[in-house]
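Narrative summary of target 7.
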Amino acid sequence: MLRAFGKFIWRFMIIFSFIVNIVLVIVLVAAGILLFDIKNNIAEPLLTGLHATSRGLAESTIDWTIPVRDNIPVRLNIPLQQDTTVVLTAPVALNVNANIDLPGINAFGVAANVRLTLPQGLELPVALDLNVPVDEDLDVALDVRAVIPLGETQLRDPIAALENTVGPLSALVWDLPSDFYDAGYRLGAAIRGDSSDPSYDVDLLNGERPVRGDFNGDGQEEVVYQQYDPWPGFSITAGVNYDMLNIAPPPGHIRLETGIVPPGALPGLDEQWRPEYYDEGTNPLMLNQLAQQQLQAEGIPAYTYDGSMSDYYEQAQMHPRTENPDSGSADGELGIVTPGN
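Modeled conformation, tokenized:
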């Protein structure tokens, strides 16, 4: 009796283990299919799209024409004090009375009428000392074209922070197997220790990505590196026929590079994504602290680089500075410099 019961238990355990293994295999296959589907249809498109968006923002350029239409009243007196030379554009006839001395006939102060003509082209020195009144309404009609690469503005940093966050995750998700065949292919490369096989490098965080396909036309799939650019280009152009990009800005308008590094994502991924910021034991936090100390030592206003420009603007607008272009200085001068000779 006891022996029969033990045999029953033994058979039950075998059948139960077999059923559990079958169920486990089915669950693992279903989970794998689900994970591959999530990777291929949700995670990879989402992260790749975010990465492409961040790269597109970094590479985009604003090209817009701003129409300026206005009427500007001009009311002022321009003091003009200058020695100059005028040139006659036509002959000028003169008829004047004069007293003439004729010593040859011992006649002095003889009243006479003199007629003469100043020829065309004669240069005459003239001293000008007068006020020139200006009372006009000037119509202004300008079309100002602005071509602004966003990568050359402060928007560069938040855009870079977004790419530093989604870029490494996008690369890692891209490197995950897409199906059971891909998983087996990569597992085989890892078991063989074939580090030259692109599928072996599952931590690829550079400008290339592994792509599987029949690239040799021999009917067999292989994995190769291909250059990867998440942003293919733009649907409209910017800067066509704009020839002022090589003109230097005024000296007072020059922007300064602060040395502040945009934040990254997970430290482990960020160190692989931006290794240049982790050389010799440094990190972005240390670099930013050093950069801020240097900026303070150079006397650069903090609101120009720490993101508080809007607060500074609001405070400045509480006590706005007004300027009246019609008012002169205390001594009546308008500050207009007259031209020289």
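The beta strands are 61-87, 92-102, 107-118, 123-149, 208-213, 222-227.
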